[in-house]
Amino acid sequence: MKYRCDLHVNGASRKLLLVAGLTETPEHLALKLAAFLLYWEHEPIVEASTKHPSLLGQEFTPDLVAFDETGAVKLWVECGKTALHKLGKLVRRYPDARIVVLRATEGEAKRFRTDIAAEIERHARIEIRAWPAADFKTWLGALRREKVEVYGEAGDNALNLVVNETAFAVHFGAF
Q1: Which end of the chain, N or C, is more open, meaning fewer C-beta atoms within 10 Å of its C-beta?
Q2: Across residues 52-76, what is the average pLDDT?
Q3: What per-residue string of b and e applies to 53-86 under the rule 16 or more CB within 10 Å gives b?
Q4: Phi, then psi, of 140 in degrees rounded to 5
């Protein structure tokens, strides 16, 4: 599965190719696209290489990452299910970075917040965002074809877009 995206957001245009890895589901790719749009202003990179100087020595890579002007990680985004030990390491390794987990439902996000609060010492540094109610299913439905066209506005917690002729006005909950 892959998405060839033509994105026209916040007055700028970008192209993005999302290709599913061996274990990636359509839901995971859909979350990655949403994260890319939510953090548009940070000029995120999808599938960053561990060869990047700021990621050298990492045993894992982010779903989405953005770097500051010095090349340091300023934003690390995980989409869907994420191991608690991974998040614990990220909090310690990147004390100045913003760490975000994007989940498909508010229920998943609430349960995950409870889990990380019990397991991770500085869990408050981890932002958890979630799609409201049935909006994620509609998002998946809009992404049923390989070619994806997006027009509109996006910010850290909201999308106001038209995606393949489907309108979205979504405010993401924070947990």
Answers
A1: N
A2: 91
A3: ebbeeeeeebbbbbbeeeeebbbbbbbbebeeee
A4: -60, -40
